[in-house]
Protein 1
Amino acid sequence: MNFEDGFVLCRRLLMTLMVVGFSTLTLLLSSCSQQTLPLIEQKCGTCHTATIVYQTRRTEEGWRQVMHGMKIRGMEITPEEEEQVFAILFREFLLK
């Protein structure tokens, strides 16, 4: 096998790996994006898509800061709803 044949073989292998990797990533992302949580959709998905929440992991303090910022920007949420949202965020989207 000469250099050119080796280069072509490596290139084909790399392209195959990229396609397989991209397909796997797409599959994973599509399964993640299918998860919807009604309260998150209702409260967090009014100014932006709730997908942002579903794709984010934060510490407990990080989520508290985000919630504070959203309330400052006008999020309407009762104390009971806020506790429910925190329960979901801490259970599903906590950075560990």
Protein 2
Amino acid sequence: MSRAARRVLFVSSEVAPFSKTGGLADISAALPRALAAEGCELRVLTPRYGFINREQHGIRNCDGATGLRADFRGRSLRFGFSRAPRTGDVETYFVECDPLYDRPGLYVDPFTNGDYIDNDYRFILLSRAALQLCRVTDWEPDVIHCNDWQSALAAFLVSRKRGAGAFARTRTLLTIHNIAYHGLFGPESVNRIGDGAERFYFPGGPLEFYGHVNFLKAGLEFADMLNTVSPTYAREIQSSYEYGYGLEAVLHARGDSVAGILNGLDTDAWNPATDAHLAATYDANALENKERNKLALCARMGLSYDASVPLFGSVSRIAGQKGFEILIPVLSDIFHLPARMVLLGSGDPHLEHVFHEFARLYPDRFAVRIGYDEGLAHLIEAGADIFLMPSKYEPCGLNQMMSMRYGTLPVVRATGGLADTVVDAADAAGGTGFSFREYRPDALLQTVRRAVKTFRDRERWMALQRNAMAQDFSWAQSARRYRELYDQCLRNPPRVVA
């Protein structure tokens, strides 16, 4: 088979710009484009949620691919496929099923703030539809690339179809973006999957997890190969319950079938030399222009500007995982270094309230914006001096890469992708930020103090900025590794689970 002939069906529950709750959507848009540039023939499949406007995106029904039927042991649903105009060498297909997808949220009901009670139906259909799309379009992929629990069952279904003579040449790859999310459902869900799933649901079996059906575990057991979004995270999730969330033994048993590939960064969207969201564009040879963004950021957030006082930034989901539980106990100490800080994000209502209180107590040193604002996110990356990212765990992380590209040095906990991308300033070979290992407030504060001390040495600071801005986080590197992983999948015999 020629190198240009690899056919890949990329299945994801969210794909930018059509649907998005987090980084998975951006990855599901950028990685297929980069893979196409590596000589792969890419088709992307995702649900068409009700908020995705067909006319706006030019989405049209696929000929001969409507009016299909899916049976779920007592519930029968009609579904079909539609397609957006081809973008470069990537074709994007949608699963059309209004009873399951015509809703205001992707996974969570915004009216109850709870998961949709029929999420099992919704994502069983996505996995089934992946195989059905191949049939109705007469297109057999070399690799079906699944992403997280929402499409993990496709690996199980392909394995079962092989036994009936279909998909004999097709291999499956499951990418774990965050192992904390399993896709857990009651035992009755196993009857809805089909293809003899009941045979594999028993205590300790491939689909069972403490009395529940576990979609992610099914993918981990049946996919031909697995990968996570950074090499360190691939090791961490096999090492302990703290990182593996109860699936560490399953992963450890897969051994060499678990790879770690860093996510890439959209270097066109995140480029300080061309970024339209900035007050002033700049590059490593014109770092003086970066200061104009600090001035603009302070003005926008209502903080006084002082070039000699470091400005910390954070753009994050506000949740314990992101390290706020070790940041809050030392936040007052940080303000008195002295330092200032801006925070953009949303999440845990209790933590949001805590940060509002800090903003009230320190109005000249701390500003918070709850929600998400794309333009402000770019301005924070450019206008801050130091980016705070003390995560408890971080499968890959993109903000540290964005920060380094913008010459904003990150302070990170050395976990997951943060450990793989940030080189501590103490490294004689050329640091790009500051890191610590112990998940404790005092370890974070000590590292922040070290960063502030270095900030005052302007010559050393600018050298670190240039080191950081010279790093290559483009998707091209990651796509080459995925292409190699696809080739490895196809060289290996298919995985058989008895």
Protein 3
Amino acid sequence: MELLKVSAKSSPNLVAGAIAGILRDGKEAELQAIGAGSVNQAVKAIAVARVFLEGDGIVLSFVPHFAEVTVNGEERTAIRFVILRNPGS
């Protein structure tokens, strides 16, 4: 599974392209976002990736969960989105 870190300044289209590439390769992707702005960009990227993959007949789903991460020696709570390629697509 490939972990992509998303910030509030991340381009949803670029992140979506990375997600689409990973899923086209038959792998799973995981996005990590810390803070409201980065969560917003991550959700936008997932929505755009869904559109990118429609033409290939690939349907995605995602599962959000909390994760504790260390950033600059400080514990932070992140939201991680596991992005899966649905069976049969």
